[in-house]
Design brief:
Layout: H1 2-9, H2 15-24, H3 33-44, H4 53-64, H5 68-75, H6 82-104, E1 114-118, H7 120-125, H8 137-142, E2 193-201, H9 202-207, E3 215-220, E4 231-236, E5 239-245, E6 253-255, H10 256-262, E7 273-277, E8 282-283, E9 285-295, E10 298-307, E11 314-315, H11 317-320, H12 327-332, H13 344-350, H14 387-402, E12 406-409, E13 416-422, E14 428-432, H15 452-459, E15 464-469, E16 488-491, E17 494-498, H16 508-519, E18 526-529, E19 532-537, H17 540-556, E20 567-570, E21 573-575, E22 578-581, E23 584-587, H18 593-596, H19 604-616, H20 624-627, H21 629-633, H22 645-658, E24 673-679, E25 683-691, E26 697-706, H23 716-730, H24 732-735, E27 739-744, H25 749-752, H26 765-774, E28 778-783, H27 790-797, H28 813-816, H29 825-834, H30 836-847, H31 859-862, E29 868-871, E30 874-877, E31 880-882, H32 888-894, H33 899-903, E32 907-908, H34 912-921, H35 924-928, E33 950-958, E34 961-968, E35 974-979, H36 984-998, E36 1003-1006, H37 1010-1013, H38 1015-1023, E37 1027-1030, H39 1040-1058, H40 1063-1075, H41 1086-1090, H42 1106-1121, E38 1136-1140, ...
Parallel strand pairs: 5-11, 6-10, 13-16, 24-27, 27-28, 31-32, 33-36, 36-37
Antiparallel strand pairs: 1-3, 2-3, 2-7, 4-5, 4-9, 7-8, 9-10, 12-17, 13-14, 15-19, 15-20, 16-17, 18-19, 21-22, 22-23, 24-25, 25-26, 29-30, 30-31, 33-34, 34-35, 38-39, 38-42, 39-40, 40-41
Helix pairs in contact: 3-4, 4-6, 19-27, 23-26, 29-30, 39-40
Length: 1243
């Protein structure tokens, strides 16, 4: 019936017609992007696109937009999705509106309008489809109608007549007239809507109520509003809460973090209210509560909705109907300057606590690290820490723990090893190597970092600028409880869990950027890029007001600022490679400084590198061959090198061509980035470029510098790594927070600095430090041949002169400890140069190793070439100095204790481990001090097939009381005997009494205690045929059966003592429990295997009793048998009765006298001369005269012999004299039996 009615009143729409309407829908003139998106989603809900839904929405959205700007922008995107297309279109629409308003310099004072409309028709028409009708009149006119072709002037709907409209008595919130709704009002008001949310009640859909309402809530923003809106301070549950005023909404709400912080005492109840964003996404609602509210002496108990997330608390219309706000004061404050300052020093002094030392703690926000579903935890063991750094590492762990950044945990499913980097001040920096753990399975955060367009919109028109730098950026943001497990680090001191967002997590930039943007939300002329906050204003006075707001907002949320890196009241500031001042955006000079200051070549090699750069970007340089003609002549073999004025002129002309604006690209956050780095013996160079859709590289900026004296001594692999770190740091503003491709012509760096490679523990410390620096970036590293790497190669060979020290020169602390040894680092450096093999290794390490090696002596060094480095003339493998043969024997003598562990922290040479083993094998003290060998494989005893076949015995002592324990290996049955002596005699006596009950075993297993190894004990066992097995001395595991019982018995004894059980009851209670508990090996109770039954214990009472069932059935049988006519007959002693005689049918009853009662149903009766046992069913009372004695004698002989209760035939109690009458006995037809008393065995 339900299906029939549904098909009749709600027929399934025609699929082809629904899709036709979907593909015919285009954006109408004046219709907003958000309204068009909603209309598309509504129509698509009935088109049954299935998995093609996203593609269909994307295609129709792009094709249906009205505006060539949108189409051109969306069609240029690669891998475009519907969500991405919506974001781009909405951003373009908002930027277009902002640009128009900023250009017009609107003078509107207050345009914050809140609009509430009731859209009954949309809810009723599309109820159950999960989509909603757009609230614009133009969209309503486009929808098909089957009842009414024109839109209703009362509500804007199209499925009814105006006379039937349910809103004909509603009051318009726009004009105040009755008869129509605000959305259909023809009195137009200028509004500017930016965001929309829907609030509905779930019960409306489930119950199908006619009067259900769908509330559309519009929040209007304008450039002239107060940046932080209007906030009202209310007392909620006696706690101050600042709520944003929103007169257009119908519900008041607070976010979850405020509820947990201030309203946790109020009971949260489930609610059917549902919040839905304008894009259709659900906003989770946690519940509803009644909260005490106080404002200026007024008190109420009002409903409040709690939602998830970090949304601002909103004071909405349902509260305004109760609360009388001081509107005069609220609106008067709107035009009063929020701060009054006289100078920058006043502002900084007011917020001086922001610039204090220590870690800040951001309130109201927590970082959440999300991993892919179904991810298995990754646990990495800790990496060894050099002895020279162990103290520093432990101090750093203690410092972080005292600062509540980390805390030690007992266990964790996730764990990442740590990377230790020494600093100049003798301290270290610790970081988790999350590349090998959580970064492999982390879900990316889809939150964009600020780009140039955002910067221009926010800061354009400013004349005064400030930059505020946040201290300990990530570590000011707390982690939520679930995310802490992913950031666990594994150290030599155990596991430590981070409580703050840690350095090295790939999603940390997006998480932190999102948090700071929310903290600074609503502040105008303020932009933020990670830990740099940029502020602009037209004048210094206005600028200080904005700075005051920013610092107040940071103070409110507990953010700390590093004052030494802040810049205030500047005329210009650099951001994302651009210089921003009052005139706008300008490219910075350092982008082309590497080419402008490139020195002229001094030899053919340098000239070839420069020409390679020109050829690399030859397509951007017109008439290249003509310009290069003088330079090409210098490359000819028969031409002497001479740098002529023509060559200098050609060189300068080529540089000017390279610096032309047509060649250099502007940074575009939407285009892929590529960073090429290279190093030469004299310098390093880097080029950052955009990759065009055609695959061509368009350079953005260049950088180069010369190497310092110490850097020129680096190994070639270290120089190449230095060039990468130089390029990344130089172009940090371009690269940070973005995915980019890193190019190098040194292939070993792919394994050492790869984004998925673990940080090498044996690499030089500077390599570890550089790898740690790259953890903050999201990149892929690629190898490119040197011939294709001409752009970076030329910059490295023609570097700019630089007075900077370049890299951070830090001491390798492990080497300095060698000064304490008899052999110092200077001696090793000298011998390294003198030794032919080591001299060659040193040269190859400095200049670079070939691709193949044939010398067998060089192969041990060749396989480690990527980890070799030099320092002060010594060759290092990681942090270990490679020792020449001359000093090896002397150094081995210094490492006689803990040789391998100590050697691995300081030195190495080929075959070091074998040399140490040879030395130790010939060392007598070492031989005598060797450790215990590993335990042998487990060899269990064979299981005895019958009880009491093999027993294990041992003594236990508790509180100076000895106990002899015997265990049966078949059933695990235990016997325990308390004794005061443990000698052989006492042991034999206990076993003798025990074996009298259970018999002799075949085997007895014991340890080598004196009672068991005595001659008397051995003789006792031999005479009884028992085989004695002794366990090896000092190896109790052989007698593990008895040892385990001893352990269990001692623990049980202590447990019973704690339960206040009397000492004399503990043994019995333990044995009862042990015998009736299933054993883990046999999975049966010892009593069941040993006694072949289950003994009755107190717990047996819990099981149903069989006897009760039997009694029950017996009673049922008795009730069925004992009818009312059947009554129990009883007889008195001496009463005359007649006894049933089954042998004589003709004379069935024989007279007798009752002697006594045997039981409830049996009597002893005197029949003639015999006393017989008769059942009551064979007895009847009698009053007749007795028959003759002869007859009685004959009949009595026919009865069964007299049987007593014990079953033996014997004479019972003497018969009671009874008078009998004379009765004639019939003639016997057989002889009398001769009865003899049986001769019974007397037991």
């Amino acid at each position: 019936m339900t299906q029939t009615l549904s098909d009749h009143f709600k027929p399934k729409p025609i699929l082809i017609a629904e899709r036709f309407r979907f593909y015919q829908l285009n954006q109408s003139p004046g219709e907003t992007i958000s309204d068009y998106i909603l209309a598309l989603k509504r129509l698509a809900s009935s088109c049954e696109f299935g998995t093609f839904l996203d593609d269909a929405l994307r295609d129709k959205f792009v094709c249906g937009l009205a505006g060539e700007v949108y189409n051109r922008r969306l069609l240029s995107e690669k891998d475009l999705t519907f969500k991405k297309a919506c974001d781009i279109a909405l951003a373009l629409e908002l930027a277009h509106k902002d640009t128009k308003e900023l250009g017009a310099q609107s003078t509107i004072k207050d345009t914050s309008v809140h609009k509430v409309q009731n859209d009954y028709g949309a809810k009723e028409k599309y109820k159950g489809r999960g989509s909603f009708q757009c609230n614009t009149q133009k969209r309503a006119q486009q929808q098909p109608s089957h009842k009414y072709k024109s839109s209703c002037y009362r509500c804007g709907g199209s499925n009814h007549y105006p006379t039937e409209c349910r809103h004909r008595n509603e009051k318009c919130h726009n004009c105040g007239k009755i008869g129509h709704l605000q959305r259909a009002c023809k009195s137009q008001r200028t509004q500017r809507s930016a965001k929309a949310q829907y609030v509905s009640d779930d019960t409306s859909e489930t119950q199908g109520a006619v009067n259900d309402e769908l509330f559309e809530l519009f929040t209007i923003y304008s450039a002239q509003d107060r940046a932080d809106g209007i906030y009202i301070d209310l007392q909620l549950n006696d706690k101050l809460v600042s709520m944003q005023l929103d007169t257009g909404a119908s519900l008041s709400l607070i976010p979850e973090y405020i509820y947990n912080d201030k309203l946790k005492d109020c009971c949260l109840h489930p609610t059917s209210i549902r919040l839905v964003s304008y894009t259709g996404d659900k906003i989770p609602v946690l519940g509803e509560l009644k909260v005490p509210v106080a404002y200026e002496g007024q008190q109420w108990s009002l409903p409040l909705v709690v939602v998830e997330g970090d949304k601002p608390p909103l004071l909405w219309r349902n509260w305004l109907q109760k609360i009388s706000l001081n509107w005069k004061e609220i609106f008067s404050l709107r035009y009063v300057s929020p701060v009054s300052v006289t100078s920058l020093s006043d502002v900084l002094e007011k917020h001086r606590e922001l610039f204090g030392d220590g870690y800040g703690k951001i309130t109201d926000f927590k970082a959440k690290v999300r991993v892919q579903e179904g991810t298995h935890p990754i646990f990495r063991k800790p990496r060894p820490v050099p002895y020279a750094l162990k103290d520093a590492v432990e101090k750093e762990l203690d410092r972080l723990e005292r600062s509540s950044i980390i805390s030690q945990v007992g266990r964790s499913d996730w764990a990442a090893p740590i990377v230790v980097v020494p600093k100049k001040d003798k301290t270290v920096r610790l970081c988790g190597d999350y590349k090998v753990t959580v970064n492999k399975c982390i879900l990316s955060e889809e939150y964009p970092l600020p780009n140039v367009a955002d910067l221009f919109t926010t800061l354009a028109g400013g004349k005064v600028f400030s930059k505020i730098d946040l201290s300990f950026a990530y570590q000011q943001l707390e982690l939520d409880a679930e995310s802490k497990q992913y950031l666990t680090i594994n150290t030599h001191k155990g596991l430590f869990q981070y409580h703050r967002l840690a350095y090295g997590i790939s999603t940390a930039p997006a998480i932190f950027q999102h948090t700071i943007d929310q903290i600074l939300q609503g502040l105008q002329n303020v932009a933020c890029f990670m830990d740099d906050i940029l502020v602009s204003a037209l004048s210094s006075e206005e600028h200080l007001i904005v700075v005051e707001k920013v610092l107040s907002r940071l103070k409110q949320h507990g953010v700390k600022v590093k004052k030494s890196k802040c810049e205030f009241l500047c005329n210009s500031v650099e951001y994302l490679g651009f210089k921003i001042d009052e005139k706008g955006l300008h490219p910075t000079e350092d982008k082309v400084e590497a080419i402008m200051k490139a020195p002229a070549p001094t030899n053919v090699s340098e000239l070839r590198s420069f020409l390679g750069l020109l050829n690399y970007y030859g397509k951007f340089v017109p008439n290249l061959s003509t310009l290069l003609h003088p330079l090409h002549r210098l490359l000819q073999a028969n031409v002497k090198w001479q740098w002529s004025p023509q060559c200098a002129q050609a060189f300068d002309a080529c540089k000017q061509q390279l610096l032309s604006s047509k060649w250099l690209a502007h940074y575009d956050p939407k285009k892929p980035l590529r960073l090429a780095c290279d190093a030469s013996p004299c310098g390093v160079g880097a080029v950052i470029s955009h990759v065009l859709p055609t695959g061509e590289e368009h350079p953005i900026a260049f950088a180069s510098r010369t190497l310092t004296a110490s850097e020129k001594n680096y190994a070639q692999i270290e120089k190449e790594a230095l060039s990468i770190v130089f390029g990344v740091k130089k172009f940090h503003k371009y690269l940070y927070g973005r995915k980019f491709h890193l190019l190098t012509d040194h292939k070993p760096l792919l394994a050492i600095l790869g984004p998925k490679s673990a940080i090498p523990t044996l690499a030089a410390l500077r390599m570890q430090r550089w790898a740690l620096t790259l953890l903050a970036y999201d990149y892929d590293i690629e190898y490119r041949r040197s011939s294709d790497h001409a752009n970076a190669d030329a910059l490295s060979r023609l570097p700019c002169d630089s007075t900077s020290t370049g890299g951070e020169e830090e001491t390798v602390f492990q080497v300095s400890h060698l000064d304490e040894l008899p052999v110092c680092a200077k001696d090793i450096a000298t011998e390294t140069r003198r030794n032919p093999l080591f001299s060659k290794v040193l040269d190859l390490t400095l200049s670079g190793w070939p691709s193949h090696i044939t010398d067998e002596h060089l192969k041990p060094f060749y396989v480690r070439k990527d980890q070799l480095s030099t320092d002060q003339g010594c060759i290092l493998w990681g942090s270990r100095v490679i020792i020449p043969p001359k000093y090896r024997e002397r150094l081995l003598s210094e490492l006689i204790i803990r040789m391998k562990a100590l050697a691995r922290g300081y030195l190495w040479w080929p075959g070091l481990d074998q040399d140490i083993q040879d030395l130790v094998s010939k060392c007598t003290p070492c031989e005598l001090g060797r450790n215990q060998p590993p335990s042998a494989p487990l060899y269990p005893w064979s299981w005895a097939t019958t009880p009491w076949e093999r027993i294990h015995i041992d003594y236990a002592e508790i509180d100076k009381q000895h106990f002899l324990l015997i265990v049966d290996t078949h059933s695990k049955w235990v016997e325990i005997f308390p004794t005061h002596l443990t000698n052989a005699e006492k042991t034999i006596n206990v076993l003798r009494h025990l074996w009298a009950s259970y018999g002799f075993p075949k085997e007895l297993v014991s340890d080598n205690g004196p009672p068991f190894t005595s001659r008397e004990f051995e003789e006792f066992l031999r005479k009884n045929g028992v085989r004695h097995v002794l366990s090896p001395p000092y190896h109790p595991a052989t007698n593990g059966q008895a040892e385990r019982v001893v352990q269990i018995f001692k623990k049980a004894w202590e447990r019973l003592r704690a339960q206040s059980v009397a000492p004399h009851m503990r043994l019995a209670r333990f044995l009862l429990t042990y015998h009736n508990t299933p054993h883990t090996v046999t999975e049966r109770t010892p009593a069941e295997l040993f006694l072949k039954r289950q003994p009755r214990i107190r717990l047996t009472l819990l099981k149903p009793d069989t006897s009760a069932v039997v009694v029950k059935h017996q009673e049922q049988q008795k009730r069925a048998h004992d009818t009312p006519s059947r009554k129990l007959r009883s007889f008195e002693v001496g009463q005359k009765v007649i006894v049933r005689n089954s042998r004589y049918p003709k004379c069935a009853w024989t007279p007798g006298v009752v002697l006594f009662k045997l039981g409830p149903l049996t009597y002893q009766v005197q029949v003639g001369e015999r006393s017989v046992k008769v059942h009551v069913d064979h007895l009847l009372p009698s009053n007749i005269q007795d028959r003759t004695a002869a007859m009685d004698s004959i009949i009595a002989d026919d009865f069964a012999p007299n049987v007593c209760d014990d079953g033996n035939a014997s004479v019972t109690k003497p018969p009671v004299p009874v008078d009998t009458g004379t009765v004639s006995s019939p003639e016997r037809r057989y002889s009398l039996r001769q009865r003899k008393t049986p001769n019974r065995l007397d037991l």
